[in-house]
Amino acid sequence: MSVEIRPAAPEELLRALAPISHYFGSSGPPTEERMQGVVRVLPEGRMHAAFDGSAIVGGGGAFEFELTVPGGRVPAAGVTVVGVLPTHRRRGILRDLMRAQLDDFRARAEPLAVLWASEGRIYPRFGYGLASLCGDIDIRRTHAAYARPIEWVGEARLVPLGEAHELLAGVYKRVAAETPGMFARTPEWWQARVLADPEWRRFGGGEEACAVLEVDGRPEAYALYRVNFAFENGLPTGATVVIEAMGASPAAAAAVWRYLFDLDWMQRVQAFHLPIDHPLFLLLAEPAELRFRAGDALWLRLVDVEAALAARSYAGDGDVVVEVSDEFCPWNEGRYRLGADAGHTDDAAELRLDVTALASVYLGGFTFAQLARAERVEEVADGALARADALCRTDRAPWCPEIF
Fold it and tell me: What's the predicted TM-score (pTM) here?
C-alpha cells in the first residue's frame, strides 16, 4: 500500500505526533497536556503526516520563526517532532516528508530552515549543514571564583513564573537581536514552552525558579533554574540546574552568573546548550573547572540560496563568487556572489561547495578555511578562501538557547 504525505488536519494533530512520541516511550498518541509545547504554538497546516491507509506512521512539523542572521532577521521554518514508526522504516517515508516540508517552505517564501538533530547523520541527505555548536557545564561551586572581582550591578529578585514573561522578554529580545541563531519568541511561546513547568519536565528535580536582575528598575538579566536539593552524610550535595540565563550587557551577564554560582546549599552548577564562546571562559579563574563538553547544536538548510544570501550582511568591501551544488533542491544550483550585491551571477566560480557546507558558514559558526581543511570546499581562485572569510566574519558565535 502506498503512503500518502499531506498536512495533518487539526483533529489529526495528536495522532501525527505519535511517531515521534514512540521514541520517547509512549505507546500511543500523546495527550494534549503532554504536548502543549507543540500544540499551542504550531500553526495550523504546519504538521505533515504520512498516512498508510487510515494509520499515521510518520510526521514532521515546522514552527514559524523570525531567525536572527548576521545583519538582520529572516523568516525561517523551525523543523520539529520528525519521526517515522519503526514498522515503516527504510521505505523512503522520511525522504518524502522532507520533500513535502521543503517544497512547503519554498512556497511560503521561507529562505531558511533550522533544526536540532537527534542523529546528525540523517539530515545532510536533505541539505542541512551543521551551523552552530553548544556546550554543557558541570562545575563545583568551590571552583567558580571569577578571575577578577566584579562590581555587582542592580538588584536581583525572585519572580513567580506567572509574572515573568514581560520582565524576561525584553532582555531576551535585546540579546536575540545581536545573536545569530536565536529567534523571536511570541507570548504564546513563552507561556507554553519557556515558562511551563509541568511535573514531567522536572525529571525529579525542583520547581522552575526565576530570578531577574534589575538596574534602575529595568530588567537587564535573568536566570531560569532548578534547585535540586540533596544531602549526604550531613553535607549538601545538590545542584543548581540552569535552564536559561542571559544578560543584555556584559556586566549584567557576569552578575547573573555570579548569582547562580553563589546559591547556598548547592555543591554544583550545571547548565546545558550554552554558546561555544560563552564569557565564562574568560570570567572564571579556573575555566577548565567548567568541564565544558561541546556538541552540535543548530543544523541549517538554505531553502532559497539567493534570498538567504541577500538577507544577511557582509563585512568589508569586495566579493567572492561561489558555485553551489544542491541535489535535493536543484533550484538552488548555480553561482552566487557573496558581498554587498549578493545574488545569482554568471561570473566564474572562485569557490565550489555544496549547500550543506554553505549552511555551515551562513550564521558564522564555521569558516570557509575550516571547511577547506575538512575538504568540504574547493578553492578555484587563489585567495578566495581568505576573502570569503573576511566577508562572512561575525563578532559572536551563533547560538540558540533551547531545543525546539
Answer: 0.95
